Amino acid sequence: MKFQACDEMENFSFDDSAIEELRAEGDEVTFTFRGAVVRADNSQNSRYQDMYCGTIVLRLMGAKIARFIKEGYKYFDADGTLLEQVPDEDVPEPARAAVIGRCAGGTVFTVVKEEVEEGSAFSFGIDVPKEEDEEEVDTYWLCIIFEHSEAMWDRYCNPVEN
Asked: Which of 58, 85, 115, 158 is deepest in the core (most CB within 10 A)?
C-alpha cells in the first residue's frame, strides 16, 4: 500500500464507512473499510484538510475483544407508551465468528475511544443488515483493546468515488 500510518487511530474518521471485510484471528483484528476519512492532522496527509480515501485496511495488533454486544431497543407508540423492550445482550463466544462474518456489508456509524490502563481501546458501533430483512439492521458494539494499529491505503479520492 502506498500510505501507511501507525498508531494514529485518532487521526481517522471511520464514521459512515462501509465494512468490506472484518477478520479476528489470533491476536489481530483486521478491518477493510470503504469511505473512511484521513483527518488533516494525520502524518500521511500532506493536504492539511480532511480527505477521503478509497479502500483502507486497518490492522489492530496485540488485540483482544473486550466486549461484543448486540444493542437492545425500545418501541413506543405515538403517545409515548412503551410497547416492547429488548435489552442489550452479549454476543456469546461460540456465536462471535458468525456475527463477525455478517459485519461485512455493515456500516460503522461511530468509533468511540475508551479509557484503559494499558494499550488503546476503541468501540466500533456497527449497523449490520438483518438476514431476514436487509431494510432493517442489528446494531452491535465491538470494543477492541490493542497494542498497535496500522492503517494502509493506496490513494485519496473524492466522496463521489466511494
From this structure: 58
